[in-house]
């Protein structure tokens, strides 16, 4: 890795004829994330993104080369940093997570979004105040006016100012959260990015250790399930499995995760119910048009049960959904804020697995207790939009 970093740095120094301007210590080192790496020269930085296969050459704006050097090829793009302004694609599901920008205090330079289907209170406030415009993602002229346009869809046609930002591609919660360092490089805010990630990681690890002690004698069996067109699926995405393990639970066996169950087929329904009888906690991921209308009655109708006595997760009121924080009934903060602050997700799951009754969850709501949603709106923004949002740390000893 050292050899590669030196080679990249030496080549670019020769090309750019650079002089030192990068402050000593204002650097980030990737500890956990897999899909990006950062390299530093004296007046430039390089991000190698394994998702889109591109290298982003970031040139400091106080150098002569900033105005005369421009790359836009299949393998390399250049940007002048810190970015003077930028836009983000909030339309493609799940969209670019806005919360990373908020944690760095970068909303002040955000000038365009492709949809107001977001769960950021302060972004919604800025939109309402006219500080951020909604731009047409199909209009190249609108998008090219920005110094950078951050996207999450790797299949999207890319202009020269497009930059891929996709934390959700990573396999573990902390790997996903570390993408704040990726973003910090574009703004010369590595110190802030490092600080936020360190706080998040320390809190996450503290909760993991607490859960490990708590689950020494009992590990609840947890199933992530979803329903679509009469069929139930057990979902097994790696980061969700990791959350369960870190919160002190045990995932449903992998052999079960591969199966699907059609409730209109008696044998399938019987097998599905048999498996559910072994589960202590259910997380229902069923996608719906309006989360406010999804209740315990909806869930029970979908699993087609007459007798609830067999199911421990019903008896103990442990049926959850991660759609507690939403905007306009459809934009769910699970796909935004939960990515940048996984310690809050872990705190929620710890409460679900080992309930205390005195912890208010952030992203999960309990269907079995008829818990409703929290509707996110601009009136909930309690800080200056351009001010950095502080990570919320879960009490942990």
TrEMBL record:
Keywords: Signal. Residues 1-17 form the signal peptide. The keyword Signal applies. This is Uncharacterized protein.
């Amino acid at each position: 890795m050292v050899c590669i970093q030196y080679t990249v740095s030496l080549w670019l120094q020769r090309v750019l004829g650079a002089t030192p301007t990068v402050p000593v210590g204002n650097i980030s080192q990737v500890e956990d994330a897999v899909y990006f790496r950062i390299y530093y020269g004296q007046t430039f930085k390089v991000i190698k993104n394994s998702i889109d296969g591109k290298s982003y050459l970031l040139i400091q704006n106080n150098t002569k080369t900033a105005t005369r050097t421009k790359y836009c090829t299949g393998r390399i793009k250049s940007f002048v940093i810190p970015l003077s302004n930028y836009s983000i694609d909030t339309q493609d599901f799940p969209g670019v997570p806005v919360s990373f920008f908020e944690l760095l205090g970068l909303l002040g330079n955000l000038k365009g979004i492709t949809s107001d289907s977001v769960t950021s209170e302060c972004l919604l406030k800025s939109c309402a105040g006219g500080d951020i415009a909604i731009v047409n993602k199909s209009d190249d002229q609108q998008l090219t006016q920005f110094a950078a346009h951050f996207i999450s869809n790797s299949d999207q046609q890319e202009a020269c100012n497009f930059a891929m930002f996709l934390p959700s591609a990573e396999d573990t919660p902390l790997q996903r959260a570390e993408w704040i360092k990726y973003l910090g490089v574009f703004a010369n805010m590595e110190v802030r990015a490092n600080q936020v990630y360190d706080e998040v990681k320390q809190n996450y690890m503290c909760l993991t250790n607490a859960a490990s002690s708590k689950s020494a004698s009992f590990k609840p069996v947890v199933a992530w399930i979803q329903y679509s067109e009469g069929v139930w699926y057990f979902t097994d995405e790696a980061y969700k499995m990791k959350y369960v393990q870190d919160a002190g639970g045990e995932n449903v066996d992998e052999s079960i995760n591969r199966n699907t169950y059609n409730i209109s087929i008696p044998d399938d329904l019987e097998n599905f119910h048999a498996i559910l009888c072994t589960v202590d906690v259910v997380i229902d991921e069923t996608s719906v048009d309006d989360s406010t209308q999804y209740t315990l009655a909806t869930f029970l109708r979908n699993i087609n049960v007459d007798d609830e006595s067999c199911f421990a997760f019903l008896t103990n009121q442990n049926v959850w959904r991660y759609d507690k924080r939403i905007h306009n009934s459809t934009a769910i903060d699970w796909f935004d804020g939960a990515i940048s602050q996984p310690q809050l997700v872990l705190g929620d799951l710890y409460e679900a697995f080992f309930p205390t009754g005195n912890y208010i969850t952030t992203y999960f709501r309990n269907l079995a207790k008829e818990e409703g949603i929290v509707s996110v709106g601009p009136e909930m923004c309690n800080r200056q939009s351009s001010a950095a949002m502080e990570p919320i740390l879960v009490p942990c000893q």
